[in-house]
Design a protein that fits this description.
The chain has about 190 residues and is of the alpha+beta class. It has 2 domains: about 1-20 and about 130-185, no CATH class; about 35-120, no CATH class. The protein is about 40% helix and about 20% strand. It has 10 helices and 11 strands. It has a 4-stranded mixed β-sheet. Strand 4 and strand 5 form a beta hairpin.
Length: about 190
């Protein structure tokens, strides 16, 4: 049974405040960008417009396979009335590029090189928190086998999911929300 708290009319699964988590790319190899699924990463409509603008920059880091997919089919699709990034072979996000043997985001690379102010879709930035809407926003931690190294590293760093995801939580919900969320940690 999940326990939830409410902050600013947003329901938050309490595991976000208790589960220890710190991404370990050296072990997971960027699995969040290559998870096998019929669905890509959820997108907000305004993100589609932002990605359209950064697309020429992101393409510079992509393989021919990914560029062809985007040029032939676009980078997004709609399934179950939800905007999603397109995936290749129900696996790799169309924005995946490989650095050594780690899957990374071409949009984020353009951001890290100061070529855009859009880091990446918020659903990717918040992963492994999933945002759903059941008459209001609900935040839920989702556990994936591929993220087991993040749980192990989280025990060493002693960071919770919320603490590890401070920046994207602030980006999406604001500083006030994040402060209230962290204040719930010890209650």
């Amino acid at each position: 049974m999940y326990n939830y708290i409410s902050i600013n009319n947003i329901l938050i699964n309490s595991e976000i405040l208790s589960k220890k988590f710190t991404c370990d790319l050296s072990k997971c190899k960027g699995a969040c960008c290559t998870l096998k699924s019929d669905f890509g990463a959820p997108l907000d409509w305004d993100e589609i417009e932002k990605i359209e603008k950064v697309l020429p920059l992101a393409k510079k880091y992509l393989s021919e396979r990914n560029i062809k997919e985007i040029e032939n089919n676009g980078f997004w699709e709609v399934k179950n009335e939800t905007f999603l990034t397109r995936s290749i072979n129900k696996r790799d996000c169309v924005f995946v590029y490989w650095e050594n043997d780690i899957a990374k985001c071409a949009i984020e690379k353009a951001y890290l090189e100061d070529k855009t102010d859009f880091i990446k879709p918020i659903s990717c930035h918040l992963f492994p928190i999933r945002v759903t809407n059941f008459g209001g926003k609900t935040l839920k931690y989702e556990e994936y086998l591929e993220c087991k190294p993040a749980l192990e590293l989280g025990e060493k760093t002693n960071l919770t999911v919320a603490e590890f995801l401070k920046t994207p939580l602030q980006r999406e919900f604001g500083d006030d929300f994040f402060k209230k969320l962290i204040n719930q940690k010890d209650k």
